Amino acid sequence: MAIRKFGTVVAMLACAAPAFAEAAPKEKEVWITIGTDALEPARASFQQKGLALPAPALEKGGVAVLRVRESQLETLAAAMHDKLNRCAGFIAHDTEQQALAAVEGSTAPQSLASLVSYNINNGPSVNAMLSGVQELNIRNTINSLSTNWTTRRYNVQSGADAATWLKSQWTTIAGSRTDISVAFFAHSWLQQSVIATITGTTHPNEVVVIGGHLDSINQSGSTAAAPGADDDASGVASVTEAFRVAVANGYKPARTVKFMAYAGEEVGLYGSNAIATSFKNAGTNVVGVLQLDMTNYKGSSYDFGMVQDNTNASLNSFTTSLISTYQPGLTWTNITCGYGCSDHASWNSAGYPATMPFEATMSTDNPQIHTAGDTLTYTGGTAANSVKFAKLAVSFMGEVAKGATTGNTPPPVDSGTPGGTINTATFDATLKAPRCTASGAGCDSGTLLNGRGGLGPEVNRPNTIGGTCVDGTSGTYHSDESNDRLKVATNDGTNLAAGKQVTVTATVWAYSSTADTLDLYYAANASSPVWTLIGSYKPAGSGARTITATYTLPAGATQAIRANFRYNGTAGSCTTGGYDDHDDLIFSVQ
Ligand code: BES
Ligand code: ZN
User: Which residues form the Peptidase M28 domain (predicted)?
Assistant: First the structure.
């Protein structure tokens, strides 16, 4: 196999020239995941060639797992291209375990993200940015990307050069803002991904991703011209314009926004897969991903084709509400793009909610993609169609990340779990800490924990079970450390119950991102707590910060969590430093 990712996952593409054609394939067997709708056409094509397609080992959620000889992958790629009226990817894995994990990932995709409610309440800021979107900027970016290099292929120098160019464009856009950074995400191949980050003001640990793929491909060979104007310079250009209007309007998002240009999409979602996997491993809470891949060709009477597979249903429905609200008159229809057709699938299989509005329906998309004919000229020399997508990206950014542009007021950020009741705790005079007695999807301390020791409004201090763990009294309220709020809620919005994954959200006032640490603990029995460490976390900076952590609820009717926020020292459930704050939250579990 010519292409490997982390030495394990091997991904193939169906429409573009298979990258494995560059090296003699070794005869071995691999496991592939493929859309079940592609099975019959693939089987027919194999039969015509006197070959038999093996029966699937598993079919689940529209995805089949089967074992094929590595040499058969090329036949399969050709079959997918010939028989299906669309591009359809399949993913090859070295082991059955990896293939099965990919299927599980695609059927249980929302396990990681602590879900937020998507709502529309940021009109003034969104409209300010929308009025700044300019077709000419998008056109210029498409033009540069599609004509400066013969190809933006992932494994050649010109592909790497295109990434360097984009990074410098984005760095120029970022200007002098210290809350914005632009960086490469390096890979094991030449082309790097590019990521621009605007750090959220109040919810920096909740991340919104807006991306497209930087690489291009010519299906007839690795040295052939691959301008990739529509696929996907148009997506990257739309993302770039959203980023530009954000900065031009002084937009400061409440949540962190990351603009991404992925390397290596055309050879199997390589770049996005590496990024999404690393975010998953870091426990990053990505609350919404918008993927823009092909935005500048109007193939259909519909303005947007909403990709239904490997995307999140509630984020899709929210995205269509953004269209009706901010671009009334534009139309959309549901489409299915095929298993793993673009980078949204990487995020989805890493457990994050993703959405992908597309330029057409599957049968009416740009016929020139993956050829030398995918030029700006082919789409009329204008970026008019991409304007709709840049505007959709702007409304997605403003409404998912909230915050405000210069002169506007940021709306409230609702981090509530949809569908479930988050109870607000009251002080329990017996246990001596805030408690939610009613059952529900979560429990929130509200304002009860705000402050530390005698500093600030923390009534009923120290708010630890039994009053046994007292707070340090050094320093000043909201200059030095305090743990101000604790919330625990199920990730799926159902009631707190044994075995459920929950997210703890702690709001702290940090003095230092290096010296301060939050130790989070849980106890199965609040009346006689034995504290188990969930983890120790550092705030991303000073001031008000939210820190999240997940754990699985044990059995026990009345449970508790503890925040031990300390200045220096080592992890402990009741550290004794003069700046240390300890707070508990008690809640009912079914
Ligand atoms: N932009 C295409 C995906 C696409 C093509 C969507 C046509 C809708 C209509 C993307 O760059 C691509 O080529 N994807 C590959 C799959 C990937 C796993 C290599 C494909 O669809 O073959
Ligand atoms: Zn493509």
Answer: 194-388
96: annotated active-site residue: no
List strand residue ranges (DSSP E) for 80-202, in order: 90-93, 180-185, 193-198
Catalytic residue among 266, 309, 484, 516: 266
pLDDT of residue 106: 46
Helix (H, G, I), strand (E, B) or coil at 243: helix
Strand intervals (E) in 292-388: 304-307, 332-335, 354-355, 357-358
157 has pLDDT over 90: yes
Q: What does the pLDDT average to over 178-201? A: 97
The per-residue pLDDT for range 71-83, each reduced to its tens digit, is 777 777 777 766 6
CB of 206 sitting under 6 A from ligand 1:
no
The mean pLDDT value for 424-449 works out to 92
Asked if residue 300 lies in contact with residue 360, where contact means CB atoms within 8 angstroms, the answer is yes
Is any atom of ligand 1 closer than 6 Å to the C-beta of 266?
yes
User: Which residues are CB-contacts of 388 (< 8 A; sequence separation ≥ 6)?
Assistant: 295, 303, 304, 327, 330
158-185 tens-digit pLDDT: 999 999 999 999 999 999 999 999 999 9
The answer to whether 332 and 382 are in contact (CB under 8 A) is no
CA of 34 to the centre of ligand 2 (A): 18
What is the distance between the alpha carbons of residues 522 and 228, in angstroms, rounded to a whole number?
52
Residue 54 in tokens: 């093996």
Give the up-direction half-sphere exposure of residue 354: CA atoms within 13 A in the CB hemisphere. 29
What would the pLDDT profile of 50-79 be if each residue is shown by its tens digit?
Answer: 888 888 877 777 778 888 777 777 777 777
Indicate the burial class of 212 (C-beta count within 10 angstroms; 0-12, 13-18, 19 or more): buried
- Domains in the chain (CATH in brackets) are 29-104 (3.30.70), 123-400 (3.40.630.10), 422-588 (2.70.50)
DSSP 194-224: EEEEE--SSEEEEEEEEEEE-----TT-TTS
Asked if residue 14 has its Cβ within 6 Å of ligand 1, the reply is yes
Answer positive or negative: Cα dihedral of 68, 73, 77, 82. negative
Query: Which of 85, 213, 266 for mutating ligand 1's site (highest number of atoms within 8 Å of CB)?
Result: 266
Q: Go through the chain and tell me how many residues it has.
A: 590
